[in-house]
Automatic annotation (TrEMBL):
GO terms for molecular function: mRNA binding. Belongs to the PPR family. P subfamily. Pfam families: PPR (PF01535), PPR_2 (PF13041). Keywords: Repeat. This is Pentatricopeptide repeat-containing protein. The lineage of its organism: Eukaryota, Viridiplantae, Streptophyta, Embryophyta, Tracheophyta. Coiled coil: none annotated. PPR repeats lie at residues 84-118.
């Protein structure tokens, strides 16, 4: 664990922030080093989410998706980790930025079938995706569904 002194260990949230910032400067090797160090002390979903965002930011959608499915499997093991709103929304946002609409919709449907139902941020991401894809029919239909709900 990186320490300022023996009395001040980093928290999981600090690791998550470090991973996010390091991903933004495109230092994926350091991102992985931070994750491995953090995992040695346990981990939280927020750390996985930060790594997923770093992967997506650096155009590594396949690694991000692999990490997502790994996190979904972790639900059944002793870590007690599971995807949360941020997990799904980060993945959907990454697919919007990558212009991979089918993947965006697939993850949205996975989220609908999970205990974690789409929130307002998820719906706004989907609308953004449909707007970027110039799929006005789906965007219009989706907007009407939101008005009804």
């Amino acid at each position: 664990m990186i320490r300022l002194g023996e009395d001040f260990p980093m928290t999981f949230e600090e690791y998550a922030k470090g991973i996010t910032i390091t991903g933004r400067v495109k230092n994926v090797d350091l991102v992985v080093d931070l994750l491995m160090e953090c995992v040695g002390y346990g981990t939280k979903t927020s750390v996985y989410n930060a790594l997923m965002r770093a992967y997506m930011y650096n155009g590594l959608a396949e690694k991000c998706q692999s990490l997502f499915w790994e996190l979904k499997k972790e639900v059944s093991n002793s870590l007690g980790l599971s995807p949360n709103f941020s997990t799904y929304n980060s993945l959907i946002a990454g697919y919007v930025v990558a212009w991979t609409w089918e993947d965006m919709e697939r993850i949205f449907h996975v989220m609908e079938e999970s205990p974690m139902k789409p929130d307002i941020d998820t719906h706004l991401l989907m609308l953004r995706g449909y707007a970027h894809s110039r799929n006005l029919e789906k965007r219009e239909r989706y907007t009407n569904l939101l008005k009804i709900a």
